[in-house]
UniProtKB/TrEMBL annotation, chains A, B:
Organism, scientific name: Thalassospira xianhensis MCCC 1A02616
Protein name: TetR family transcriptional regulator
Domain annotation HTH tetR-type: ranges: 5-65
Residue stretches spanning the membrane: none
GO molecular function: DNA binding
Lineage: Bacteria, Pseudomonadati, Pseudomonadota, Alphaproteobacteria, Rhodospirillales
Cross-referenced InterPro entries: Homeodomain-like_sf, HTH_TetR, Tet_transcr_reg_TetR-rel_C_sf, YxaF_TetR_C
Length: 196, 196
DNA sequence: ATAAATGTTTACCGATTGGTACAATAAAGC
DNA sequence: GCTTTATTGTACCAATCGGTAAACATTTAT
């Protein structure tokens, strides 16, 4: 094999950051080439499908990360309470307290949504279902757990939008604190937000 | 004056819909020209500043609509409770139960955020402050009202992201119902979400 | 009627877009 | 040491990008 400056898997996180910063349309091939240090030839060698395949792989990698770091512990962990707490911590770290955008959320609002609709839907659907399962194991009934999980995920996404719009990480941190207390409030005490 | 097929003010809502569908970068001038029925020359006659001016005017118009239909009643209306209820109704209608994207929220996640950062920040900041004032008039203390208002706006934005990602308007409607009850819960009963 | 103001159309600009072709290069296997 | 195979750089492509120029049409004020 010839000289390997970078493997395909090394390039994907760089691509992810580029898409996050510039969006799908805004990330031109020349920009990608210069930021990755790879020529167009190499890029199309690694990703024959072009920009669309690059973005697909990025989405897959993000989904994989969340699957391992967040979803799986929520579903299979011994302690659902601890998994939920860990989710909040992971999410806050991952999104750099709101400074880093959720690429999948951004794609959902973009016109490229249709192109990646399956990946986008799965990402949120699996997250919601995993969180719901953890809540059920805490003692909530299924419907209530579904509602709470939905509200938590949507609050995180909204927090990313609002903290970025106001350029204020405190917005994100306050929202995460609210999400955490909302998720960990037991099934006995109502929280006035999701239910009867 | 020469023949007027469309006034500037007539074009702006069309532009808004184009930007909503395709994003800032995705809305090419030729697309804009064909959708508005105006040639490039006419476009640049109405908007000498080009695409950036078109987007600015769209943002201004959106802000103006919210100012009249939502913010002002929240601040100055006789009945703050009614104004809050009306806000929820207006928002649900405006966003077509989640099928229509919040252009300003989408811009906030996009790389064009820097270009329109002032308009984006003001839109959300004024919304939050107006809603906070209404909550204070209901009887909340200032800090608590600020927190509740922030949570409501962020939930709406997150609901738009999530309902679009899952392609399910029910997500948006459930979220709006939660927002409404959260906003209208009196200052006496805690709601477990924003509380001390 | 005519001049001036106001829109509109069309052709065009250089730059950049995503993508392709292909030769050059470098290492691994024999 | 030669061939094979995987990677890279360069040149190039048609298409489209945002934007400009200027001739052209239409209407109002005089």
């Amino acid at each position: 094999m010839p000289k390997i400056i970078a493997e395909r898997s090394d390039v994907i996180p760089v691509l992810a950051e580029i898409f996050r910063e510039y969006g799908y349309e805004g990330a031109s091939l020349s920009l990608i080439a210069s930021r990755t240090g790879l020529g167009k030839g190499s890029l199309y060698h690694f990703f024959p499908g072009g920009k669309e395949e690059m973005a697909s792989e990025v989405l897959r990698e993000i989904d994989g990360w969340f699957e391992d770091a967040v979803y799986k512990p929520l579903r299979d962990g011994d302690d659902p309470r601890a998994a939920i707490l860990e989710m909040c911590r992971s999410v806050a770290t991952y999104f750099w307290s709101g400074k880093r955008v959720c690429l999948i959320g951004a794609f959902a609002l973009d016109n490229v949504r249709d192109r990646f609709s399956d990946a986008i839907r799965d990402y949120f659907a699996v997250w919601q279902r995993s969180l719901q399962q953890a809540l059920v194991r805490i003692g909530h009934d299924a419907d209530r757990a579904s509602d709470i999980a939905e509200d938590a995920i949507l609050s995180i996404q909204g927090a990313l939008v609002l903290s970025r719009a106001l350029d204020d990480t405190a917005v994100f941190e306050r929202a995460m604190a609210r999400v955490e207390t909302g998720l960990l409030a037991g099934p006995d005490q109502g929280n006035g937000r999701t239910g009867p």
